[in-house]
Amino acid sequence: MDKTEFIVENFGVSRRSAMLVAEAEDSIREKFAEFEKTAEFNQLKIMKAFSDNRVSERHFMPTTGYGYDDDGRDTLDRVYADVFGAEDALVRHNWVNGSHTLATMLYAVLRPGDTLLAVTGKPYDTLEEVIGISGEDGNGSLKDYGIRYEEIELTAEGDIDFESVRETLLSKKIKAVLIQRSKGYGDRPTYSSKRIGGIIDFVKSVSPETLCLVDNCYGEFADDSEPTQFGADLIAGSLIKNPGGGIAPTGGYIAGKKRLIELCSYRLTCVGIGRECGSTMGFNRYAYQGLFLAPHVVMQALKAAALCSAVFEKLGYETDPAPFDDRHDIIQSVKFGNKETMVAFIQGIQKGAPVDSFVTPEPWDMPGYQDQVIMAAGAFIQGSSIELSADAPIREPYIAYMQGGLTYESAKLGITVAADNVMKLEK
């Protein structure tokens, strides 16, 4: 029995759906070579960092209590700094998700009376309450601490409004600029590390003292460089996304300038203690192994994203990126235009997951989001975005966002089931 027959007989999809996916796959095979080239380069960077820092089995040993002199923890920080081309880094299991890590970065460098300027439009939904542009007063947002916030919308083409950025930097004292690499729940391009470098150069040319902070979530190892190599003062991300390689069970990282990393460590624990304390309790091995696997796993996710784009473009939907576009993160968006089709897509992704494939996701009021959200997340690690998942806010124009896939083959199955769901709905 060939694989098409196996899928049709065992997963309840039509032969037409399976053949459509096979045709889409054949049409983009040359694109896969680009992802493989990037993965190999990033793998070499990680191998050099491991070698230069003499990573050994002793670095995997757990510590408890205060965690003083945890060499595995401290070496992991240095490995991350080398991989990301940064002066220093902080990698910890204490961060529960990317938003928590980003919040630590913001609270670490901003003080009462400072102004934070978002130059890539409104940040990801879960940062709104951190900043204080939504939620109740008195909960401890940046706004509650007297930190002001300004926001510059993107142009109609999804680019930075450089003139408005210039005017704001010249007319107001801006302590920090926030740059979001990925589109989040927006409808705009993801920025490459090089393009972010251009934004940073512009900001520094107008206001040299302004800090440039980058939300790097979903983008790690999609390019052969990172924003810290193009002048970012700090970048932050989650270990249950790209850099954890599907192995790290929790955690986050911040990388950048040494003094700023010190301030982040004070916010993580407390002033005067910083990074000197913090037991790892067996976490280190997962973090090292996840980072080692990350370039290959990200390549699998990029292949899956390109396949998803090709399949749903063939079905007549607007996809971003398009199948042959350059990719700078693992997110693939599909614009459905109506709630029912979008929900069918996401429920199909869940059906093709290795975990909880029998569950049917429904929209719900998810903490930190302003709209109801539907999420397919059949993962070994709860909420992991480097594993195949898809989610969407229940709002027009009804765009679904798919990301991840520990293996291309398993992600391909999820995409096949999702396409079949949508095609059945169209009949």
Please provide a written account of the structure.
This protein is α/β, with parallel strands linked by helices. Helices cover 41% and strands 13% of the residues. Strand 4 (176-180), helix 8 and strand 5 (211-215) form a beta-alpha-beta unit. Helix 5 (98-109) packs across helix 9, helix 7 packs parallel to helix 8 and helix 11 (339-351) runs antiparallel to helix 12 (408-426).
What gap, in angstroms, lies between the N and C termini?
A: 29 Å
**Overall helicity:** 40-55%
Q: Count every helix, treating DSSP H or I runs of 4 or more residues as helices.
A: 12
Question: What is the radius of gyration computed over CA atoms, rounded to a whole number of angstroms?
Answer: 21 Å
Widest sheet: strand ordering = 1-7-6-5-4-2-3
Spans of at least 5 consecutive residues with low confidence: none
User: What is the succession of H and E elements?
Assistant: HHHHEHEHEHEHEEEHHEEHEEEH
Largest sheet: 7 strands, mixed
- For the secondary structure, the number of strands is 12
What fraction of the residues are assigned to beta strands by DSSP?
5-15%
Structural class based on helices, strands and sheet pairing: alpha/beta
Give the rounded overall mean pLDDT. 96
| Outline type | globular
